[in-house]
Amino acid sequence: VVAGLKPSLIQAFAPGRGVAYSAQARFHLLNVPAGNMSLLAEVPDHFLKWTRKYYDASVQPRSFLARTVFGDYVGWFLDAAIAEGDPERFSWIKDAACGLAREDDHWHVHCASGRVLPANAVVAATGNFPPASPRLPGLNVSSRRYFPFAWSRGTLEDLSQTGSVLLIGSGLTSVDLTMALKSRHFRGHIYIVSRHG
Description:
It is built from 4 helices and 6 strands.
């Protein structure tokens, strides 16, 4: 169950990948080299070894790989953990957690669908929430041409190839979107404004 995302967005993600590692474009790169990533603290080069075995034997410790490769690694790791345990004890529930209540010795997770899930323990692994709308004078947040979440479906659809695009925020997501626009042969102007000036 995912907290903070609409159920329509959850459908697009596989378990463990979330927004960041579901990016399918090969130019959406990790911002840490392969040799410095691992799901196992005691094996700091585990991701590097995995990529050399399952992805590309020529990967170097300094290689910056596509985020989808790390998503595949996380998926592989999750599948292995499920297979080693009791597969009947794992469920991928495509719903949004919208409330949490403690009653006696149990937790109750309230979902957007109305379903209530009992739990002995709860881990809030929320990832990154969609950003709040910036407070910019003149910004019409109800316009169909304004997308508050960069990874929403249709964000880059129906754009004039020679128009202009304003990206609010100058971090990694703005680089991702600039690359995505260029991959679509966008020839217009791309403006990037920091959210903090």
